[in-house]
Amino acid sequence: EAGVTQFPSHSVIEKGQTVTLRCDPISGHDNLYWYRRVMGKEIKFLLHFVKESKQDESGMPNNRFLAERTGGTYSTLKVQPAELEDSGVYFCASSHLQLTSGRGGTQYFGPGTRLTVL
Amino acid sequence: AQSVTQLGSHVSVSEGALVLLRCNYSSSVPPYLFWYVQYPNQGLQLLLKYTSAATLVKGINGFEAEFKKSETSFHLTKPSAHMSDAAEYFCAVTKNSGGYQKVTFGIGTKLQVIP
Q1: Residues in chain B closer than 8 A to A6 (CB atoms)
Q2: Confidence of residue B77 (pLDDT cuts 50, 70, 90)
Q3: Cβ-contact B77, B19 below 8 angstroms
Q4: Do residues B15 and B83 touch, judged by C-beta distance below 8 A?
């Protein structure tokens, strides 16, 4: 079974530019999560999709960040325009939706995208 | 709110020595606790998880963790360190959000194994 994949692995852009990160979850996983780790800090939750719907986007830093999951498969996270403080590693995770309890299953993480904003 | 605190951002052990990585949690409800590992240039990998069954949880690569409610701890141990254990380890707790999981991570502990 293929794991969670993310593209690109690294991205270096200048302040003010736009970057789009992509995440392909494990096939069949309805839950998809985005997290971010700024250097020296904790990995922080950004948002959560159940299929194509945003379940919780309380961790999104501001309206420069836009996440989509059209069709309930892969997801994109766009940063426009990028600022210096957006630099960090962006992780995506996916899990099964456990219908009996409504709780999501164990989250499986991708390798992350390292974003550097100059 | 739920949180985890990892004591020691860097830990060094000799090859063959005991590995002990400390994690304390704060939770208003019975928590689900996890340890993840990130090897160099790789993603986060689940080492083990506690879900209110057995308090001693065994994971991959010889790691285990014990849930101690009285101490609000979930320390990670391995009897004998191997060079390949050098990585960053994250303790994490889930927060229910409308019935779904939102993972809250500790700051991470980098483990160095000295030959």
Answers
A1: 43
A2: very high
A3: yes
A4: yes
Using beta carbons and an 8 Å cutoff, which residues of A are at the interface with B?
A: 3-4, 6, 31, 33, 35, 41-45, 48, 50, 55-56, 58, 91, 93, 95, 101-104, 106-112
Q: How would you class B71 by CB atoms within 10 Å of its CB: exposed for 0-12, middle for 13-18, buried for 19 or more? A: exposed
The string of DSSP letters for A52-93 reads TEEEE-TT--STTEEEE-GGGS-EEEEESS--GGG-EEEEEE
Residues A100, B80: Cα–Cα separation, whole Å: 40
The DSSP secondary structure of B53-68, one letter per residue, reads S-SEEE-GGG-EEEEE
Overall size of chain B counted in residues? 115
Q: In which residue are the tokens 């996983």 written?
A: A29
A36-66: per-residue pLDDT in tens? 999 889 999 999 999 999 988 999 999 999 9
Cα(A108)–Cα(A36) distance, integer angstroms: 15
Task: Indicate whether A12 pLDDT > 60.
Answer: yes
Q: Are B93 and B32 in contact (CB under 8 A)?
A: yes
| Chain A interface includes B10 (CB < 8 A) | no
Chain A residues with CB-CB distance to B44 below 8 A: 43, 91, 93, 109, 112
Q: What are the chain B neighbours of A35 within 8 Å (beta carbons)?
A: 103, 105
